[in-house]
Amino acid sequence: MKNKQALGVDIGNVIINHRLSDPDDKTLHEERYSTIPASKGVFEAMKKLNAFFDGQVYLISKCTPWAQEKILAWLSDNDFHNKTGVDSKNIHFVRERHEKDAICQKLGITHFIDDRLEVLSHMIKSTPNLFLFQPDKAEIEEFKQFLPNVTVVTDWEQILSKIII
User: Are 57 and 49 in contact (CB under 8 A)?
Assistant: First the structure.
């Protein structure tokens, strides 16, 4: 029987770990974006999740057109699609955080992983399984009323243990 569930995953600070890079290093973002490290364990976890969700894994990211180009290059340069099996056609970009919810509804997303509680707050009524990945404490404080509706996770192993039972 085919799995009728689908997974949505944010990219920045969930797949591409900007936290490990120097925010003041302008050449990194301009010339060496593809050298920004991946989150620990992301390739292996995404491969398992892609199998679990029968290929229904979507990357959904809020970014500028400039960042979109950089992200697509990072995914290519880091061989993301070959390492994970996630289809390169399953990438969606939005310009505003709240727009992720409409994409998730259109795709039938049942599980979503993001590092921003603000993003997840827009999905509470439409996406039953929300995971907050390594959140920022200040942002949690700002959107704390939504915290009971999400599962906070600290790493990819924990995500696997919560989704793949």
Answer: yes
Query: What average pLDDT does the segment 35-45 reach?
Result: 95
Residue type present at position 82: N
Q: Which of 108, 106, 158, 107 is nearest to 132 (CA)?
A: 158
Tokens for 130?
């929300």
Taking CA 5 as the corner, what is the angle to CA 10 and CA 82, rounded to the nearest 5 degrees?
55
Tokens of residue 51, six digits: 């199998």
C-alpha 48: how far from chain center: 15
Is residue 26 classed as helix, strand or coil in its secondary structure? helix
Tell me, rounded to whole angstroms, the distance of Cα 150 from its chain centroid: 15
CA 23 vs CA 26, 87, 154: distances in Å? 8, 30, 22
The pLDDT of residue 96 is above 60: yes
Query: Residue 68 and residue 65: Cα distance in Å, rounded?
Result: 5
Residue range 93-105: average pLDDT? 97
Burial level of 10, CB count in 10 A (0-12/13-18/19+)?
buried
Fold of 7-163: Rossmann fold (3.40.50)
